[in-house]
Amino acid sequence: MNAQPKNLFSFPRFRPEVGGKNTAPFLPMSRAEMDVLGWDSCDVILVTGDAYIDHPSFGMALIGRLLEHHGFRVGIISQPDWQSADAFRALGKPNLYFGVTAGNMDSMVNRYTADRKIRSEDAYTPDGDRTKRPDRALVVYAQRAREAYPDANVVAGSIEASLRRIAHYDYWSDKVRRSVLPDSKADILLFGNAERALIDLTHRLAQGEAIKDIRDLRGTAFMTPRGWLPDEDWTEINSVKIDTPGKIEAHTDPYAMVPEKEAKCATGDAPAAAESAEAKPAVKAEAKADVVQLQAIRIMSREERQLMLRNKQHKSVIRLPSFDEVKDDAVLYAHASRVFHLEANPGNAKALVQGHGDRDVWLNPPPLPLAMDEMDGVYDRAYARAPHPAYGKSRIPAWEMIRFSVNIMRGCFGGCTFCSITEHEGRIIQSRSEPSILREIEEIRDKVKGFTGTISDLGGPTANMYRLACKDKKIEESCRRLSCVYPSICSNLGTDHSKLISIYRKARALPGIKKVLVSSGLRYDLAVRSPEYVKELVTHHVGGLLKIAPEHTEADTLSKMMKPGIGSYDEFKAMFQKYSKEAGKEQYLIPYFIAAHPGSTDEDMINLAIWLKKNDFKLDQVQTFMPTPMALATTMYHTRKNPLKKVTADSEVVETARSGKVRKLHKALLRYHAPENWEIIHEALQRMGRRDLIGSGPRHLIPSRQPHIPITIDESGVANGRRIAAPKIDTFGKKPTTRPPMGTGIKTAMKTAPKTTARTTATTAAPATGRPALAYKSGKSKAAIGSKSGRR
What we know:
Layout: H1 31-37, E1 44-48, E2 53-54, H2 59-69, E3 74-78, E4 97-100, H3 107-111, H4 137-148, E5 154-156, H5 159-163, E6 168-170, E7 175-177, H6 180-184, E8 188-190, H7 195-206, E9 220-225, E10 235-238, H8 269-279, H9 281-290, H10 302-314, E11 316-320, H11 323-326, H12 330-342, E12 351-356, E13 359-363, H13 372-379, E14 386-387, H14 397-402, E15 405-407, E16 409-410, H15 421-425, E17 430-431, H16 434-447, E18 454-455, E19 457-459, H17 473-478, H18 498-508, E20 515-516, H19 524-527, H20 531-540, E21 545-551, H21 555-561, H22 566-582, E22 588-595, H23 602-614, E23 617-619, E24 623-624, H24 632-639, H25 660-670, H26 678-687, E25 718-719, E26 722-723, E27 773-777, E28 782-784
Parallel strand pairs: 1-3, 1-4, 4-5, 5-8, 10-11, 11-12, 15-19, 18-20, 21-22, 22-24
Antiparallel strand pairs: 2-14, 6-7, 8-9, 9-13, 12-13, 16-17, 23-27, 25-26, 27-28
Helix pairs in contact: 12-24, 16-18, 18-20, 20-22, 23-25, 25-26
């Protein structure tokens, strides 16, 4: 695995007649489109759980156009009928491989809410149809592709593959599941930002190399016989030697000037060894006195020492506890999770291996990040910037959300434990150049239908990490921190926002561009390091509302999230209000909070609710913690152990809201003001001895009596989301009355409720912008915000 990778665009084009000036208007989805292009077969067929939208924000389009640029014929099978293998034969057998993805999201996260309920729509499907994608789509699609053509190569990828590449806790089945590799029967799995591995793999297959022989690509995983090693120079390290009770065996510094002394692990043999040493000190002393050992000294150059240490680092594999061990042992699962996340820096990560039955899942080190010119090349392809014409006038919610937005970078070094971006995109920021970004804005202006002059977002996973990096490349490559900004901002991290400010100013100065908004989540603890950035942002790039994510107020919970204290929010709020006032604008911050996060107790949630009331916030929609695969917070949820520290049977126990009732209470406390939440909060406050928070004064959280609940009934007889009882008819000549079902907490007569033709909620009317109302500040203005995908 070469530390200096080949440039992504240095490969010769496989088919000179494909790509370049012969770029297809859209990648073909049917035989008829292949005929128009003059193709008798596809080299690569991408199978995806999303609708095909030819835009770089959608994985299948980005990968497909990149492969096309390299001269490969690429076809797309989008949202196939998985009930049989017939749909997977639509484009014939691929010459090289099926590339199988679940889509832009994990299929289970895409389909189910944090309460395990089916979502109202699938944002990546025409008209939001929820029936076009199976659960665990990656495994289903890969198996069907194998069934369609048993001798075809199958390559698995996408975020679902990344987050499920080793044994992982699955929230929806509430158990530890195997890696998707053995279940999908794929030949190889690509994880993370996979452009390097994908292009190298595809060219090597095109040259006739067998897929089973390609074992040296970073960012790949594959099945091997138990105990397999690449060659005899490799050594296997048991993970318990790295993270076991006692001393931690330090990782070799590949840049050390002198070799480090061997670190001994405090294992069960250590006490016996120490006892033996104490019993025979005199013998050892005599031996040292009588024997003079001569040893030749070889003086090595600095370059030789570095090379020796790097080779030792790169030819070691860490064996994690096996699937059979972690599925039944919470401590071993937490230990495996901790070691896995510590091996995430491409500069020093070792290969990992985990037993699955009589075979191993082998994971090579993570992919090396793309250089700026490579990022430009990926995003500068000739995208149609529209859904495939086969969808006609169907509405695709995800396309509507991003059609006027520009992605300027990848990755996130925040390390939030509830987020999986780091596990997929890595901590090292990969940024595009300023000219590339400005070219894309001009393309949107000139090519995308319906553009009115407003760029809806200029950002990425986090709005303000563009071109931020470690000040020293060698320090970056040897770093083992899980976050560059927690518990405090690293002194080696550059926080200069000037390059981002420059892009903002040049983007809004382009002809035809009226406004450039920043809708991605803002890392406010970084932003306050640059008052000039905050001023530019607040003055020109906020559409009245800016979303930021404190996530919580209590220190213990924030420590489990790896988020800064609430004081950072207060500092940013003061700057935001100052510059808004100077600009003569009435603007508001929209804070996000998570209910039921591991480490958050009932008392913590009450304190958060008190903070919300004190600051006059009334949230209209809130998010309950969802344990996504591979996230560190998911490990806390499943094991009740803290993988941020050394894990032992006696190590810290993390309080976890697992029961539906507790999770419901935590969510209700974020909406303490909602009448329908009064009953559950009232009962909890009484149980916890907090009657001091019940009353009608400003210091009270809820009133003594349940407030009136606005009631709406739709045509099917559902009142406030619950079906009401049939009218009760008595026998004394009185008019019939309608009563609510028992336990609903609705105290008013149903006969007074207005009827509507659609289900509505009286307390959440949308503002005039047409966007969903999610939060508002009482006595001031309602706030409307869009997607939560950019929150950090």
